[in-house]
Amino acid sequence: MRDHRFGSKINLPSTLAIKHQLLTMMFEDEIKAIPQGGIFKENDSPALAMLRRLKGLPSPAPSCGLRE
Fold first, then answer.
1. Can you tell me the distance from the alpha carbon of 56 to that of 42, in angstroms, rounded to the nearest whole number?
2. pLDDT given for residue 62 in this prediction
3. Can you give the residue range of the structural domain that contains 46?
4. CA 16 to CA 22: how far, in whole Å?
5. Helix (H), strand (E) at residue 51
6. Domain count, the chain
7. Is the dihedral of CA 37, 38, 41, 45 positive or negative?
8. How many whole angstroms separate alpha carbon 48 and alpha carbon 27?
């Protein structure tokens, strides 16, 4: 078995870091797509929901218009 390789080891980012970067870019694109004076609806954002799931944060409960 060889104990010497040609070149140096390349450090690659983890899968979670790659997913986080992609979801962050998707979220930024959603924000840019909001028209001037528009309102951001966080319950309608798939990128934000996936980011929360990736970070282990609880996603907000969908509002159904009912109050307790």
1. 17
2. 58
3. 15-32+42-55
4. 10
5. helix 46-55
6. 1
7. negative
8. 6
Tokens of 10: 């390349």
Cβ neighbors of 42 (< 8 A, separation 6 or more) are 48, 60
C-alpha 31/C-alpha 25 separation (Å) is 10
pLDDT single digits (tens) 16-53:
889 999 999 999 999 999 888 888 888 888 998 998 88
Residue 4 lies in a domain: no
The answer on pLDDT for 10 being more than 60 is yes
- Tell me the C-alpha distance between 42 and 59, whole Å: 10
Model-level pTM?
0.63
- Contact present, 16 and 54 (Cβ < 8 Å): yes
pLDDT at 64 (0 to 100): 55
